[in-house]
Amino acid sequence: MRLNPPRAVLDIARQLRDRGYDTWAVGGAVRDALLGLPHADWDLATNARPEEVRGVFKRTVPIGMEHGTVGVLARDGVLYEVTTFRRDVETDGRHAVVEFADTVDEDLGRRDFTINALAWHPLTEELRDPFGGLVDLRDAVLRTVGEPADRFAEDYLRVLRALRFAGHFVLTIDPHTWAALVAAVPQLPTLSAERVREELFKILGKTPHASASLKLYAAAGALRHWYAELQEIVGLEAAPVAAPAGVWARTLTAIDTLPVTRPIVRLAALLHAVGMPAARTSDLRGGWRYPGHEAIAAGKAEVLLRRLKCSNADIERVTRLIALQNDLFPPDAPPAVVRRWLAHVTPAYLPDLFRLRAALARAHGEHGRDLAERCRTARRIGRGRPPLTLQDLAVNGGDLKALGLAPGPVFGEVLRALHERVLDDPNLNERERLLRIVREELLPA
Ligand code: ATP
Ligand code: MG
What we know:
Bound molecules: adenosine-5'-triphosphate, magnesium ion
Mean pLDDT: 93
Distance between the termini: 91 Å
Number of domains: 3
Helix content: 40-55%
Number of strands: 13
Largest sheet: 7 strands, mixed
Strand content: 5-15%
Radius of gyration: 29 Å
Strand order of the largest sheet: 3-4-5-2-1-8-9
Structural class: alpha+beta
Low-confidence stretches: 241-245
């Protein structure tokens, strides 16, 4: 079978063969090549032991010697992972414990799904497929290698991996695998937060139609454990007149309209509505309103993201986007209102905030044309570098002191009053003009 690996894959396999070792391309790259899809990381598996691999190549990196993984830096500048064949010996449901093995088939036997358990020989072009992965790829079926219940119990992350792969490649999960998967879902809390989080970020960062995997999370009951706040909005009905589709359905649509290159905005879209169940009140027409749900959502999202041990920077960004999701100046706002709004959201949030707003508008079936117009307005006014913070004022505390003001709370009051004035009229932001305003209008007589 002809696949087109990078040249370096052939070079590495050849160099190992010349020392008497047998080397195969394995995992995602083989699967994706068979599907005709590009795959960045070609992983290799070999019967050479890690120290032996290090002996064959000039430039290597000991990535995970205890797992048998050596990084080989190839001439193309790419680091290829070369891992010694392994087999599982025992497991605790959190990590498979492995030992080195002698054959590629043993190595394939410890892999999670048949479509991931294919090996291809770069020199002979032979395909090893002991578990029927090629047929499953052709029929678009996701199936575990071996007995599903056992394979999930070895490593419960495979539950989430199954949902991700099935969504990403649009596969039907084989009924036997699905039944075992659903039965294994209650064990998800035993996983580490980091592994669960990485799975979510792979969905958001790799799958354009991320909704497919997330729908499967919901269908399998997998949201209940790490994502209880999302479970709450599944099935929550939005106001029937204003918004026919459910909140969860709109959430998924919003994510799909955002690009994979913006995982943080996609995460904000995923969590944007988690404040709605708590905020829901009935309106006078018998529909529902969600006053203040944005702030509630920001708080709940923070709890969820801390549970997943996300970075502080990511938490800050996502929760602010959620809190600001409906915070926008009106279409005909005068420049002073736009400047105040910019001072409030800060220009650094502007692009992502409009991305989120546009995605939510599209999910509501709106075209968002006036949104694009407002985005242009905000950008234009932002480009003029208006004085958005107290630091941008043409006077500082030293100037006030020189006017005879005693340092203290009154300093802040005066600077804030000046800031209001320059937000109204940025032309006032000159030292002499501001000092005159202080002398003539703000100083206590
Ligand atoms: P992608 O990187 O595109 O998400 P992949 O198939 O390359 O897909 P990786 O997580 O990079 O997935 O893993 C590489 C290979 O290692 C998989 O194809 C699979 O054969 C094996 N593998 C990874 N994680 C597990 C696991 N938890 N249990 C069993 N095998 C696994
Ligand atoms: Mg991979």
